[in-house]
Amino acid sequence: MQVKRLIQEATARIASTSQSARLDAELLLAHTLGVTRVWLHAHPEADVEAKGFDELVARRVAGEPVEYLTTVASFYGHLFDVTPAVLIPRPETELLVERVASLIGSSAVRVVDVGTGSGIIAVTLALLCPNITIRAIDISSEALEVAKRNAIRHGVYRRIEFVEADLLSSEKEVQIVVSNPPYIAESYPLPLSVTYEPRLALIGGKQGDELLTRLVIEARRAGAKVIACEMGYDQRKSMASLLVKEGADEVDFYQDYAGFDRGFIAKWL
Hints:
Elements (H helix, E strand, L loop, with lengths): L2 H12 L6 H13 L3 H6 L10 H9 L4 H5 L1 E4 L2 E4 L10 H13 L5 E5 L5 H9 L4 E6 L2 H13 L6 E5 L11 E4 L4 E2 L17 E3 L4 H12 L4 E5 L5 H10 L4 E6 L5 E7 L2
Helix pairs in contact: 1-2, 2-4, 6-7
């Protein structure tokens, strides 16, 4: 069947599930054929045998994220391996990475990435800040395997130590803590596509901020001078109160692309 017809038919099917149906169809077909989207656009009349494409489209119609179907996701201009053992990278997390990288600059500091998942934060920081060393922590051994593959893929494996642990339970002395922790409340209704992602990396407790609260307290007990975290849009008040209680000298909250509170950087001078 011709490329353009495969894309048209898949787009029509996926439209019931996705607002980016055309893009999804192209990504799935490119993955199936082992080509780029540019190739698809350059060869719309080409007759191809897209074995397995129909199954991928059906899974997308059922709600499964494109990133899991193609096993790859984009973050900060780089491609990363992803599996259902890790969260799919969000553009908002780039804001966290940018702020931490700007804070570090050319300093030779030790960074601890808590809940590293696919390793996007640790790997990207290693690429942006060549003088740092990083310890990437996750409670999931499956997630750590994905993170290791991504570190190898981007040539920074030797600069990152991977540790299976629960938050900062294995740490005694840290300088900078960065994290995109679980911060969704147990009762929050998740969109269909998000239900495919690991619940362990999404749910932060009954209220949503319990794990985040634990992380801040553990970071301070471990002597952290800086902690930078993502958070829920409604957690600024509770986090501000906690950080004041923990004696933070400076606290800077930032917003995501939609203007919602999305994270903070706290410092102890």
